[in-house]
Records
---
Amino acid sequence: MSQPLVLHPDRLFPADAATRAVARQLYALVERLPIVSPHGHTDPRWFAENEAFPDPATLLVKPDHYIFRMLYSQGVKLEELGLTRRDRGPVETDPRKIWRRFAEHYHLFAGTPTRLWLDHVFATLFNIDQRLSASTADRAYDVIAEKLASPEFRPRALFERFNIDVIATTESPLDALASHAALRTSGWKGRIVTTYRPDPVVDPDFAGFADNLRQFGELTGCDTGTYAGYLEAHRIRRAFFRAHGATATDHGHPTALTADLAGREASALYDRVKHGQASAADAELFRAQMLTEMAAMSLADGMVMQIHSGAMRNHNPLIYNTFGRDMGADMPTRTDYVHALKPLLDRFGNEASLTIILFTLDETVYARELAPLAGHYPALRLGPPWWFHDSVEGMTRFRQQAIETAGFANTVGFNDDTRAYLSIPARHDVARRVDCATLAQMVTTHRMEEDEAARLVVALAGSMAKAAYRL
Amino acid sequence: MSQPLVLHPDRLFPADAATRAVARQLYALVERLPIVSPHGHTDPRWFAENEAFPDPATLLVKPDHYIFRMLYSQGVKLEELGLTRRDRGPVETDPRKIWRRFAEHYHLFAGTPTRLWLDHVFATLFNIDQRLSASTADRAYDVIAEKLASPEFRPRALFERFNIDVIATTESPLDALASHAALRTSGWKGRIVTTYRPDPVVDPDFAGFADNLRQFGELTGCDTGTYAGYLEAHRIRRAFFRAHGATATDHGHPTALTADLAGREASALYDRVKHGQASAADAELFRAQMLTEMAAMSLADGMVMQIHSGAMRNHNPLIYNTFGRDMGADMPTRTDYVHALKPLLDRFGNEASLTIILFTLDETVYARELAPLAGHYPALRLGPPWWFHDSVEGMTRFRQQAIETAGFANTVGFNDDTRAYLSIPARHDVARRVDCATLAQMVTTHRMEEDEAARLVVALAGSMAKAAYRL
Amino acid sequence: MSQPLVLHPDRLFPADAATRAVARQLYALVERLPIVSPHGHTDPRWFAENEAFPDPATLLVKPDHYIFRMLYSQGVKLEELGLTRRDRGPVETDPRKIWRRFAEHYHLFAGTPTRLWLDHVFATLFNIDQRLSASTADRAYDVIAEKLASPEFRPRALFERFNIDVIATTESPLDALASHAALRTSGWKGRIVTTYRPDPVVDPDFAGFADNLRQFGELTGCDTGTYAGYLEAHRIRRAFFRAHGATATDHGHPTALTADLAGREASALYDRVKHGQASAADAELFRAQMLTEMAAMSLADGMVMQIHSGAMRNHNPLIYNTFGRDMGADMPTRTDYVHALKPLLDRFGNEASLTIILFTLDETVYARELAPLAGHYPALRLGPPWWFHDSVEGMTRFRQQAIETAGFANTVGFNDDTRAYLSIPARHDVARRVDCATLAQMVTTHRMEEDEAARLVVALAGSMAKAAYRL
């Protein structure tokens, strides 16, 4: 038996009638504002080539780690969801079967952000009015598949329909940025910018690091056998990224450790790690040193720096060996910022022209470390709740724990941080609704006046991100 | 002057009228459901012998560490509460005096779970309508004492009155399980099962460890002088426990550390610890290794594994030396899970037929570690808030911090985890009310539909625990 | 364009009408109660000399680290706010210009406690009815400046207007307490007591430590070249402080580490640190040992001991080198209590006649460590949320996370802990309102009856602090 799918107009607003009324008024100010997406993982080829998306399972299920980690935790094999094995062993290839398996387990998402995002996608993009379940799976599949084949669902048409002002993708320094280049000359007006994410040539533990350095040298004409040449390669490549719209860099490190070694020490460290056989301590120190080097380059070239730290990647060796990276088996870890960032901050923390945006997977640092740091250092801003914490309760905790010390002005609005393109409006809508709820509660408890809440909710919905990311 | 004692029918439901109405509807579905108690510390002799309980102080005050730790913190000596000194030194022996001392301090429990549990006991079991205080102490004592002497208050009668479906006790591998055996042949229909808690023969720091190993060998006919014989003794004893109803094991370790040593290393480690003179590091490593060995045995025999980690036992040496273990002086500590569990998970985390239920005293890991782990590994589930966190606010935090990432399906419903038999209905009632409140808020903020909340609240009230514990 | 400044009579009360009604009733009981301020940093000279306060910028902006850290984080130079450089380099000296700069940035404080405190000051003391902004800056300046020059705004007149029962200041052992002595003989009835804060002679990392020890010896006639003489100097100086009203000591340590060394070891340690050239480990161990020595002295002389641990001081070397200590660049760090306090507690934790009040900058310890410790050890009490956590959300979290385990009786009411004298009524008002809100929610969710909430809200507003601090 199927249940109706209803997107309630007051969803995520506080139940209290007076507070809900304020939340509604605030939401009316932001509901239709353009989307600013300064950090994410959509594929620039989508926009450059503007081909139709594939079937519903391949588009919505197979690439979504929130979905397949939940099903896996409840005993569904990743092979049954059609995920590609490294050994090319047999996996499910029928997208309808994959979709049915997902639909049968859709009840598992009750109370999770995935449910909020997907119901929004189903209702607003596909006019589906039945909750997904085993009994509604086929009908939903057919409706979605038909629409995905239509011109209105091509990437560029959706970009316009979604009212996206600007979207940033994320690329390796080794990426030729061909799609971005094609977009620039295509005549299409959609604004897609890249982001410089140098982990493949910064993290000695990255697969193929030594080979990456060799390519890095070839691409830039620099001698990456020396530290000076290696740094120069970064400068050249950053300029190339800026020419393709980049205003920011991004750094995904296991910890937030930074270092500020003397030149000779840094060179010697590079000599030890460049062959990809660094000790764990050397690898960590090199990543630390590179955060400070990147900050120095950001001060020079104006790129905003994002630090996403605290993920222990590939926690599950069976999954890693069978399926590879990014398969839902990354785990957050306890992360220090106050000590870890000190070397970088000692050198650059007082630079008001530098912007470093900090992200965390360890919520215990919101009130204890991140808000006090960002509420003091001119160079620091706080990124929104990230990954597992990009949820209604997670975003609420961030506001409750960070704002009283950091203020709103030291935060940067919302990031969707996703490759799930169709869900981008849903994610921004959830974030805007949570902001409305939070600000409405501040208004009805008389911690803030309505005019201030109105100013802030609009800023949080986009202009703050544009300003912080210099877009 | 005394105050009335009132159990409000809406207690613990949100104040907002619309949300309260939903909470009431949900509560109507679960209020009278049978109690499933898959983990606790009641004494099986109570049920086997079915004798009357002793006086009010001996039943309700002296064994309750929540009560005597609070009174002790405010300057009441444990001797004044009649707790037995190891040296058999003088302590209060008049139960009425102990009861009065407790009653005089009852105001200390305002805002604590103990107050909620005891008021429920007083009102529902003893029809007491005055709040406990110095002025009402004697009357309450008399009423309770009289009822406790009546047939309706014998353990089995209460078991039926409480509508308990099944209750699990917890025993040492060295326990002969005589009461459980007697219950099996008694003809009484109450379902009492044991749980295999091997700490006395697994933890080298346990008092009498070397002697425990000797007994363990005698009881099983195994040579516990060798690691192989020691492991075989576990297998034999686990089978004996299963024959007495056990479906689960339980492991109370200071940390969640696990290890997966090669056979020779594990044997050599056992040789070092078996005499009870292990170094701290060896003791920790042995406990770690044994969690993995227990998981291996669980995979073979189907027993669910519970890990209760993070308590630093016997923090107060004066109390330990004078009164012994479990005297309210155990303290939670910061606990890591992501790194600590990796050796065990590397080997068994992907086994969908294995169930390991994780508990913590460190709430900071709910969102950061436990929910991401349980939301990925098929073998993992999250136990409910434990010990100090088994409270209204504590249970609310668990739901707010764990569900968005783990989903409800990776949790296991409620444990009362108590030896305070009379309070078991109160504890389940508090948990059910908190679940109703939490789900009602999800409904009125339109994160969930009413039919889903209804399904979940019933599952959380019992069926989820039965399924998870294979009862 | 300016906006009205309105102090809503229901501010900080829950939005739900039923709960708000209870909060109002509770607030009526405490709104006008005298202020008890057992820990703070007002200057005793103000009261001894009773001179007019300086201009608005010098009184309200320049000494307030909450204000200047926020402006600094947004790119305002500390020189522009008139803060004194160590090198006496040029800074802004026109108080009106400083005030305008502050007023232009007042919107940054939306959602912060600073905003709540200052609006209360502006509205209640100066009858300002326009929100501070660039356009209202001059008018506000003029109004405040005029009033500050009037007799009604002298320190003693304000003390009476604020209805302060007692206020504690905080002094170094090297302070002659001249103002306190003058106050005692002045005939004025205001009760101002000192507090013994021995960090300058206890912390080997304190600037001028060796010289401080020399002065400490001179002041007391003790030979501070020996450990015995050094300890005796403390005893003498503590007695001197008690004679000036002190009932408490205060200890601002980077961590909560305690030690209980044998006499010979402690002496040897003192020999290593007394010249101010201790290793980091020796400095930490000496601070740890001194907490235990101070507890021993408190047991003897009855002084209440406060431990404020967890701040990493002077995180920003540029700010420290340019402007010195206490310039908004101190950062909280993760802090352990369960292990750190054990040596001290092993010796004195069971002493019911000793009171040690614990404070933290690491909220993760409220539920995990502090509440379980204070809910057991007779010597321990929990101080209110401190520094960055002395905010609406911060105080709410403390109640939600500590009370269920520690009970109200193991807490000590409110501390304003401030040098911002004019804001003291605002700070107590915020704390009282948060207590009313918290207790009202316990009443409307039927976790507590109204008579109990009424008793507790009055105790929390003052009598609990007076009792705990033995004032």
---
Amino acid sequence: MNSTLTKYNVLGAAPWKFLLLTATLLFSYALPAHADDHAEPAAVEAEAGPVDDYNALLEAQGEYAPAYDFFTTSMLWTVIAAALVFLMHLGFATLESGLCQQKNVVNVLFKNVFIISIGVITYALFGFNTHYPGDFNGWFSWGGMIGDLNADGGNTWGYGGLGLAMTGFGDFIFQAMFAATGATIVSGAVAERVKLSSFMIFAVLFVGVAYPIAGSWHWGGGVLAGMDFKDFAGSTVVHAFGGFGALACVMVLGPRKGKYTENGIKPIPAHSFPLAAIGVFLLMFGWYGFNGGSVLSAEPSALGLVFTTTTLGATAGALGAISISWFMLKKPDLSMALNGLLAGLVGITANADVIDVGGALAIGFIAGIIVVFSIIYLDKAKIDDPVGAISVHGVCGIWGTVATAIFADGFDFVTQLKGALLVSAFAFIFAYIVFSILKAVMGVRVSEEEEDRGLDISEHGQEAYSS
Amino acid sequence: MNSTLTKYNVLGAAPWKFLLLTATLLFSYALPAHADDHAEPAAVEAEAGPVDDYNALLEAQGEYAPAYDFFTTSMLWTVIAAALVFLMHLGFATLESGLCQQKNVVNVLFKNVFIISIGVITYALFGFNTHYPGDFNGWFSWGGMIGDLNADGGNTWGYGGLGLAMTGFGDFIFQAMFAATGATIVSGAVAERVKLSSFMIFAVLFVGVAYPIAGSWHWGGGVLAGMDFKDFAGSTVVHAFGGFGALACVMVLGPRKGKYTENGIKPIPAHSFPLAAIGVFLLMFGWYGFNGGSVLSAEPSALGLVFTTTTLGATAGALGAISISWFMLKKPDLSMALNGLLAGLVGITANADVIDVGGALAIGFIAGIIVVFSIIYLDKAKIDDPVGAISVHGVCGIWGTVATAIFADGFDFVTQLKGALLVSAFAFIFAYIVFSILKAVMGVRVSEEEEDRGLDISEHGQEAYSS
Amino acid sequence: MNSTLTKYNVLGAAPWKFLLLTATLLFSYALPAHADDHAEPAAVEAEAGPVDDYNALLEAQGEYAPAYDFFTTSMLWTVIAAALVFLMHLGFATLESGLCQQKNVVNVLFKNVFIISIGVITYALFGFNTHYPGDFNGWFSWGGMIGDLNADGGNTWGYGGLGLAMTGFGDFIFQAMFAATGATIVSGAVAERVKLSSFMIFAVLFVGVAYPIAGSWHWGGGVLAGMDFKDFAGSTVVHAFGGFGALACVMVLGPRKGKYTENGIKPIPAHSFPLAAIGVFLLMFGWYGFNGGSVLSAEPSALGLVFTTTTLGATAGALGAISISWFMLKKPDLSMALNGLLAGLVGITANADVIDVGGALAIGFIAGIIVVFSIIYLDKAKIDDPVGAISVHGVCGIWGTVATAIFADGFDFVTQLKGALLVSAFAFIFAYIVFSILKAVMGVRVSEEEEDRGLDISEHGQEAYSS
């Protein structure tokens, strides 16, 4: 140790003093350690009798005991699926930051850390009990903070039976991971010019208030549940919800500076395609939890079908987008291929549990075609969506919902359309009003100088990359 | 909303009209909603009797009911393993793009999106039923498109019993994720100069036709199954298959321009080591599904052993490659460390379920040494493989297969060698012929100008990075 | 094939000869293939009787048969959790490399590949049996290499019962993934100036020797287990252990050149925030295995609670750090948001199975505040920790341990503090002594010229990025 080292000493004294202190501490522990009353390792401790501990666990289930092993497996799947959906937020973060310009990357990442955090916490504080209000008028109910969801049988088969084979906390955490998705979708569409503080307020309201209300209509037993509307894992109530909220925000916000000029549309290229590709693959990986977890148990027939249709929808979407964009743009376009894969995933999300192999391929392939046209059309309409979120999640969310009636048996086209439009309209109106108020009160857009300079420096004083 | 905003209005009318429309829509829903006949939340709905729904599920299993919980757990593992193997494709995409030059990154990513998509879809259209033809002559059979794999007991224990404890769709999706691997391996070896359209045609044939045929010899009950050839999760039938297909393509294609000059071998450095490292770690993560899922059930003894030997093989491979490359190159080489880890994984893949701890360490460590020599030797032989795919997957695939006879009990060296050579030779010949035909008909290589400029601009008109 | 192609021929002969050779080989196989004695596909083979194979499996469990399905599910969770913890090492690698300067990235990645490799292998060679010594004096015991952990009932419920519902190999591999964490934490703190070879020796000793000894005090039934010390998944025995080892090493090593000047502290910005963000999200994803797997079975009540509290702790940590750093630094700081999320995770790790919703939010939020102050304070004290590892893992590890007594019922504050200090002091002293000896014997720091040039070139002769 050289003589200048003491200046790094956080303890305000020579390291030797700390060594002395801890040595004394160690010694003081050493004495009682000679006694033999310390605990045995867990492995030994648990062996009271061969399977007595398991039998005790089983007995504690009471009348639900016969289903306990199935319940355990189903609950395991629920929490793993929740973790997979969590990872989708890394997918969104990397996709959005990859497709943006370098000068706005820190801002994108910051928004995504904030969104998942506030999404989960507002869901605990009021979202979950608003989303699943129990018996209510079908349109609106407001819930409070979650408590001990293991109590009152919340940790037994009695909580949800086969239709929801998980504990109360399992139910909460799986749904909580979905909650932030809506704001993440909006985040991509408004990227590169939105004012951070305004967006953060919007995100809290969109995720914390609007999402659980719209969700309660379908999954909480509200009006959509009452009209036999089918939306398996949320083509409408998650994706179209986010996509049409995004459309409203973009309309209020306006396009990025210099995007639409008198000389036509100026393409603003992705700053990092590897980052965007990482995002899309991670989103697909996480989607196995999003769709697979929506089986709400580990029932093997449904699980195998959902994994298969989800995969076929996604890959057919990529091929659809590759085909049509190669034909139209005369080049094999990577961003279209990536968006096509996502479009297929969004399209299959409404019906992954009821579609057959051919239907999954058709829905995905058409979604891949739709997304290319939608992106091109929106750009012509000067709706500036840097990541294609409105097309991928909004347009293909509606497509997937109505396609359910086309390609699967037993669903009504008009009902599907009505449900999709109801939720999309609600998201659009809610976002339009909230974002317009924010615009009037505090502004929703950074200044032109800040936009030029990039949000990373102007909002955060940080740069995404340095040498 | 400022006055210029209407020009962004995708609906061709003022936003207020849309608001009015949707408000009307909302109102039209509101009326029937007052009725009380909407569905209860799922949680409530399912509670007909305490465990009646589960008992009904169990009863539907008929004679298979006693194994239902084990079947459910095994099937859950199968689909999770499939998702992990899916993520390996992100691993391949990032590893390959990381090791390539910046100007070819978009091309690499595009190829990988295409390969996984076409791999899964051809597997649904004819691969799966070619791979598992049922009773056949042991060499060749051709299958059609999959249908409802849940039908005819495909969703019960009767589908595969303990040897394949999953539903038909579970079997399909797990195997489908493997299918694209062969072409992905080739993709890395031919990177930076292959013509995209030719490669895409090759990939369809290699993945869609050659892979399921070769696979049927071993896993479909063909000739290799008949001679007690051991290849647990595919050191030979997946990795050596891909590696020797890659060797053939590289021989037909030739090296990258400027790689082998009169003044010696010009190193072409990786454009992004972080990307490459992400790829290798993701590959190892996904390998737990690749090897672990190949247990084909959740049988605990096998699962614990396979996870342990897979991990020891990989880490010993990294240490082997670090040691030998440090000794030979006088520097601790990151790309060798990464390739060593992969080499260990490929080596352990043939035998992870039958090897012991010492054997796993030995096989991995030696694989790590072999891969370094192989990479150096191939470079001297002017076989230009930008990512080391031939050495990692081809050479170490054969090593793992024969090492099974050396380090595990009860396997015959000659049988192992014959099986490994048979599949490798088939892959080599198939790839050589197909790629040669493609070369004659449409060319397999971009022009020298395009290679100089990079495939991203010349093939896609896009760049991987921009500011 | 053009005439120059033969020079690429690795076989030293024209490709046609190889084709001929393999064709002959194929033909030689073809003859016996006409016999019909080849194996049937697995699916067919297994169907001796409907569930006979499962019943045989069950019978082999003997007295443990009643718990077999629960055991199978629990063991499946154990190995999946192990894979998730493995992925944390990619999280550490990307976080550390993202926060470092570009010139040291190869070095960071190399260290991380080495650490996970040596960590797993030393754990197999002596770590596991040192960590879980069985009956011992509570302070020190030394174990040998693992053997067949499936033998002697290691693959049945008898191995660990409900308290450790996994096979011996499951136990090993889950714990092995933890082992390397300590050195990874140190790696971040000493980055950008540590000498590679010295660090590698240190890592072997810290991970291979110190970690299992300290761990045996708590998880091996040693002194900490004897005093009812609570540390669920290792806030103290993993994170504070690593964090205080890191503090010792940084004190011995000194700060990066030019960091603390006469004109104040020079900030050294992260070279890639996307990489750092990927790291943090992957760490959180892997943490579900770290904490969730520490339930040591798939017991549904505990699993749902742990996933929920882990998520709330992390997200509250992010909000805590965002709030306080925005207030103090006047900017929404991305690195603080990321560190806050990790701080929340470290804080909740000691108590995730016993805390309630409010407690999880409080522990996380306060951890997020603590980490900001700690990072600022350590920087003022000239303890140069490029990634904030000491604050995140060391300081918040102790916070989480003592917070258990504050926010959960039934734990003693003094006991918690004593346990946290004991392990932290041991890690500090061990690291201080070992690193000081290494400093005296071979040096622990690169030369100033090497530091200026970057470790990538000076230690590895490689660069992280090239065009």
